[in-house]
Design goal:
- This protein is of the alpha/beta class.
- It has helices spanning 12-22, 39-49, 59-72, 83-90, 107-115, 125-142, 151-159, 198-201, 211-219, 221-234, 272-280, 294-297, 311-322, 326-342, 350-361, 370-390; strands at residues 2-7, 28-35, 53-56, 77-80, 96-99, 119-122, 145-148, 173-180, 241-245, 251-257, 262-266.
- The strands form two sheets. The chain has a seven-stranded parallel sheet, sandwiched between helices. A four-stranded mixed sheet has the order 9-8-10-11, covered by helices on one side.
- The protein starts with a strand and ends with a helix.
- Bound molecules: nicotinamide-adenine-dinucleotide and magnesium ion.
- Nicotinamide-adenine-dinucleotide (NAD) binds at residues 8-14, 35-36, 38, 57, 85, 100-102, 105, 123-126, 150, 207, 209-210, 212-213, 271.
């Protein structure tokens, strides 16, 4: 049995991970589960999966969970506060860590898992965008390993030769091709984008995800972050990562080789497939996902990504090319702008305006160490917070 910790157990990826665990009895022992404030769902998960440790980042919510766990006589230690997240990620009895906290909040616990030599199942793309180099260095030092969960990067991982990410040139790789669904506004008239609501933006045609990544998919910042994620995970320069819009979300990404071969990974759009792949790699286990029926689908379509419709994609591509601290600033400004949009403080099209003006204002020296990355992240958040007022509805 492999010991498993799930960071972000109460989110979309966390819940799907527990479904895959339940579909494979006797293979994984859930040792630690974490959430932010949803103590009721974490309590249900504790009843069912009996972890040794449950953590909630919000101390008040942790207090409520602790009281309920004691009242029910469950043998679960409950901890509160962000520091306890890293503890969940580095426990001795944990082999695999699902890193599925959303946003920069996942960085420190994900780094802790890497430093502790775990297999990191990486969904938290913001951590890689901010500090991919530090994460890789920690894994190299500790002998840990990383298997990507993001469906595109999991597809690339499957289409590259074993260890191919370490030497893409030697493997004959020409480019990595990320597919993008285009989100809910792919065909919305441009003039109507001013009026779309958070609920419109979160109504993704193919994937059922958390609200932040759903908005990122609607702006295509998600694809932009994924370009940077691909550069970091597979050590390629931004010019070799391409994007193609594929509204059906069946082809999850492709690797183009020197001899003209293009290898793709296909499947129904359901995160349980990459989760099962990463949990079992290099083996294969059932995921509960329906088999793909191409004849029933009838056809797959592809088209270019329009950067005038998706200015966030253009901003992210520029940050990917720029490198240094630009991705840190981009990510931080995006988190603040998306939160403001979800709260109804700014409109949808203001998201890219906020990020653009923060990128124009902030210097982005190469941040180097963790302290400098966190300082740059904090500066960019402050700058974005100040810009929100200028774009307020
Ligand atoms: P979600 O919003 O559904 O869940 C987020 C999880 O993070 C929850 O468990 C929440 O409690 C926890 N969390 C939030 N803020 C926290 C904080 N400050 N401290 C500690 N925990 C906190 O999000 P999701 O859709 O599951 O996405 C999680 C990550 O996976 C994101 O980085 C996202 O980009 C990535 N991802 C998700 C999908 C998907 O299909 N949902 C696909 C690819 C990648
Ligand atoms: Mg993705």
């Amino acid at each position: 049995m492999k010991g498993l910790a799930i960071l972000g157990a109460t989110g979309s990826i966390g819940v799907s991970t527990l479904e895959v665990v339940a579909a494979n009895p006797g293979r994984f022992a859930v040792r630690a589960l974490t959430g932010c404030r949803n103590w009721r769902l974490l309590l249900e998960q504790c009843r069912r999966f009996q972890p040794a440790l449950a953590v909630l980042a919000e101390p008040d919510a942790a207090g409520k969970l602790a009281a309920a766990v004691t009242a029910e006589g469950l043998a679960v230690e409950v901890r509160g506060g962000p520091e306890a997240l890293a503890e969940a990620a580095s426990r001795e009895d944990v082999d695999f860590v699902m890193a599925a906290i959303v946003g920069a909040a996942g960085l420190l616990p994900t780094l802790a898992a890497a430093e502790a030599g775990k297999r990191v199942l990486l969904a938290n793309k913001e951590a890689v965008v901010m500090a991919g180099g530090l994460l890789q260095a920690a894994l190299d030092r500790s002998g840990g390993e990383l298997v990507p969960i993001d469906s595109e990067h999991n597809a690339l991982f499957q289409c590259l030769p074993p260890g191919g990410g370490a030497d893409t040139d030697g493997a004959g790789v020409v480019s990595l091709v990320l597919t993008a669904s285009g989100g809910p506004f792919l065909d919305t008239p441009l003039a109507a984008l001013d009026q779309v609501t958070p609920d419109d933006a979160c109504r993704h045609p193919n994937w059922d995800m958390g609200r932040k990544i759903s908005v990122d998919s609607a702006t295509m910042m998600n694809k932009g972050l994924e370009i940077i994620e691909a550069c970091r995970l597979f050590r390629v320069e931004a010019a070799r990562v391409r994007v193609v819009v594929h509204p059906e979300s069946i082809v999850h990404s492709m690797v183009e080789y020197r001899d003209g071969s293009v290898l793709a990974q296909l499947g129904n759009p359901d995160m349980r497939t990459p989760i099962a792949h990463a949990l079992a790699w290099p083996g294969r286990i059932p995921s509960g996902v329906a088999p793909l029926d191409l004849a029933a689908l009838g056809g797959l379509t592809f088209r270019p990504a329009e950067t005038d419709r998706f200015p966030c994609l253009a901003l992210a591509m520029a940050a990917a090319r720029e490198g240094k601290g630009a991705p840190v600033v981009l990510n931080a400004a995006n988190e603040i702008a998306v939160a403001a949009f979800l709260e109804g403080a700014i409109g949808f099209t203001a998201i890219s305006s906020v990020i653009d003006s923060v990128l124009a204002q902030c210097a982005w020296p190469d941040p180097g160490d963790l302290e400098a990355i966190l300082a740059l992240d904090a500066r960019a958040r402050d700058a974005a917070g100040e810009k929100i007022g200028a774009f307020a509805l």
